Amino acid sequence: MLARNRFLLLVAVGGATLALISLSLQFLNLIPVAPVEERPFQASDGGAVVAAAARGKSRKRVFPRTEEPDPLSEAYGYCNTPNRTEQAWEGHSPADYKLLSVQVMIRHGDRYPLYYIPKTKRPAIDCTLSTSRKPSHPLLNAFIRHMGQGGRGHWESPLGSAPRLPNHSTCEMGELTQTGVVQHLRNGQLLRQAYKRHKLLPPDWAPRQLWLETTGKSRTLQSGLALLYGLLPDFDWAKVTARHQWSTLFCGAACDCPARSRHLEEEQRRQYRLRVSDAELERTYGAMARALGLLARQLRAANPVDSLLCHLCHGLPFPCAPAGAGGGCLITAQFAVIRRQQLDDEADRRRAGLYRKYAVLAMHPYLNRTANKMERVARAHEAGRGRGGGGEDEVFALSSAHDVTVAPLLSALGLEGARFPRFAARVVFELWKSPPTPPPKKKKKAKARDGEPCIRVLYNGEDVTFHTDFCRSHQRHAGRPLCPLDNFLSFVRRDMFAVVNATSYQEACYRRPG
Ligand SMILES: *[C@@H]1O[C@H](CO)[C@@H](O)[C@H](O)[C@H]1NC(C)=O
Ligand SMILES: *[C@@H]1O[C@H](CO)[C@@H](O)[C@H](O)[C@H]1NC(C)=O
Ligand SMILES: *[C@@H]1O[C@H](CO)[C@@H](O)[C@H](O)[C@H]1NC(C)=O
Ligand SMILES: *[C@@H]1O[C@H](CO)[C@@H](O)[C@H](O)[C@H]1NC(C)=O
């Protein structure tokens, strides 16, 4: 465990005054063995990088403004409470463009905490589904009934044995809540509206045209099914195959990449250094621990921000210790300090650029698959076998994932300024074909030029195509108002590795550290 020793040394030299036992706790929390779980440290699900939520008062923006953010309104943006109508720009294009395919990656919806703060009561949240509870949705009962028939679907192991609905009167750790289900029914309905006039999936769609993949966690499986139901109410189960991704990076058979962990460790050291140098944060943890009669390291290990976010999102008062244990309570001001530090961490992360290097290697396999699918669909369409033709290819693909998937995806695309993925966040890749160009009038025998395949990228309904690395410098003009697919293809196959000074995934992953 060379890396571990180096890390402990670094911490000691850094002058941290923590007890050794707490160091190893920190260490275990900091460096996951394999990227199969949501990272149980601050920069993870519900954790630290809950950054950059809605900075505008009423308008939610994907790219935060530069003014000093308010940690609490940021946190509410992260909750993504489904209580207002949302503007969605999916499915928008210049006239005469044809929509060929759509690939979506989502983060699961609102969930119960993954951590428990010792000596406090767990938040009282009911994870059964009921239209008499808020927030509800007009499709909720029909969705529940439909999930009851899920046995007719095809399930890659181990998904067949995962519950298709949350159903515990006291939520289990990490369980999807009714809020989470409603968030994704709404996402599905939004996309249904957006793509209706484009007739993306014909009424008699073939099984091959729909791709659904998820990690083995029930919250991602259930989130994916809720979105699918909102998109295609009463879909035919017999046509659906739920595919399993064992890694939260959705890297399939290409997960092996030694350099990736090195970049992640560097990033985590940066994060650790920033955190222990934050005197206000240290004082706050101390005060919180005293209020509950805990040791500061016990409280830290319980990742309290995860629990507190859940209280906040569900309008529950922050937890208190029982009278016997002092009866102290955690307060909003303490939560705000932790969140402020998380926002500082986001800013520092962007400056340092270490996360970006990790993200490029983490998300290449997923992006490579996405690019390959798009190219296939575009080719099939050129050859006249596409939609309405042979129906050979996936027209709609849904990957139901975690914050530790969506955050590196955004970073790898160069969308570093985008806010941290809130509950039920969505990233959408749309493939379009421009209208054919008529032949030049003067040349008698010239043929019409076929349309060009183009890509749009959206984050939470906002078009971010021209913020991505591969299209930031694209000169939009009347003839080419969208981003050419070729830009994306060469980005994924070569250009994205420039940030790690390489030209391929193999080279970047296996080169010895210099
Ligand atoms: C929606 O919920 C959030 C968080 O609970 C709250 O701050 C906001 O005022 C609500 N908006 C509406 C329109 O009810
Ligand atoms: C939820 O669980 C209860 C008790 O285990 C069961 O009776 C009920 O049918 C379940 N509901 C659904 C929708 O699965
Ligand atoms: C990327 O896609 C190509 C097909 O275009 C494939 O040959 C290659 O193995 C893929 N690489 C990775 C790392 O997934
Ligand atoms: C980038 O890689 C090339 C060839 O592998 C090497 O010669 C060069 O020194 C590297 N540059 C940096 C900045 O690491």
From TrEMBL:
Keywords: Hydrolase. One of its GO terms (biological process) is chondroitin sulfate proteoglycan biosynthetic process. GO terms for cellular component: Golgi apparatus. InterPro entries: Acid_Pase_AS, His_Pase_clade-2, His_PPase_superfam, Histidine_acid_phosphatase. SUPFAM superfamilies: Phosphoglycerate mutase-like (SSF53254). It catalyses: 3-O-[beta-D-GlcA-(1->3)-beta-D-Gal-(1->3)-beta-D-Gal-(1->4)-beta-D-2-O-P-Xyl]-L-seryl-[protein] + H2O = 3-O-(beta-D-GlcA-(1->3)-beta-D-Gal-(1->3)-beta-D-Gal-(1->4)-beta-D-Xyl)-L-seryl-[protein] + phosphate. GO terms for molecular function: phosphatase activity. It comes from the Eukaryota. Belongs to the histidine acid phosphatase family. This is 2-phosphoxylose phosphatase 1. The gene is pxylp1.
